[in-house]
Write a structure and sequence with these properties.
alpha/beta, binds iron/sulfur cluster
């Protein structure tokens, strides 16, 4: 595996899968937006978006990990078919699966993808990022219309399908009110988890 094909990396005993280096946001706090390819010393840029079989063929022994996390560098749900196939493979080994997402998958695919995800994904972590549309737009520069509303809808629906739903926002970003983000998350029945800049996992 060379640097242009870094499909997985490890953080604190979890196996992180990098299946897509694209997304529909241009978050100002994201290394990618700043032209930095590296996360945790791993170069996560991809020469091509991989097929499920290509990722699976490179995976280490899953039994050595407590959890598989679809995270990467882009938005995993942009590669929904591949994500589902890889997660299905991982579940055959009884390993926990988690999806870190921007919560825009239903808008991208123009349908509700949550039931399909819930068949093979145990928990989701959804980036709310802000307490209102203006702050979200300022920090995330969404390319899709009504993106912030769509994130709310995704959270509200996700709590009915996944055993664990975490909602995140980054502490210390200008204009982001962490307590309001917490209130929004908890109102939907999700668990709020503050994040910190440059910390993945
Ligand atoms: S959604 Fe994630 S990968 Fe995309 S720009 Fe924002 S932080 Fe970066």
């Amino acid at each position: 595996m060379n640097n242009t094909e870094r499909y997985w990396y490890e953080i604190r005993g979890s196996l992180y899968l990098n299946i897509c280096d694209r997304c529909t946001l241009r978050c100002q706090f994201c290394p990618k937006t700043q032209g930095i390819n590296q996360v945790h010393h791993y170069d996560l840029s991809l020469a091509r978006q991989p097929e499920a079989e290509q990722v699976i063929a490179t995976l280490p022994d899953l039994m050595n990990y407590k959890e598989v996390v679809f995270c990467g560098y882009g938005e995993p749900t942009l590669r929904l078919k591949q994500l589902l196939a890889i997660a299905r493979y991982c579940k055959k080994y009884g390993i926990r699966t988690r999806l870190n997402t921007d919560g825009l998958g239903n808008v991208v695919h123009k349908r509700d993808i949550i039931p399909e995800l819930a068949e093979v994904v145990d928990s989701v972590s959804i980036s709310l990022n802000a307490q209102d549309t203006e702050t979200y737009t300022n920090h995330c520069q969404p390319q899709l219309k009504s993106a912030y509303l769509a994130v709310h809808q995704f959270i509200r629906r996700a709590v009915d399908f996944f055993a664990e739903v975490r909602v995140t926002a980054i502490e210390g970003l200008e204009g982001v009110d962490i307590e309001q983000c917490r209130t929004i998350a908890e109102r939907y029945g999700a668990t709020f988890v503050p994040r910190y800049l440059d910390k993945v996992g």
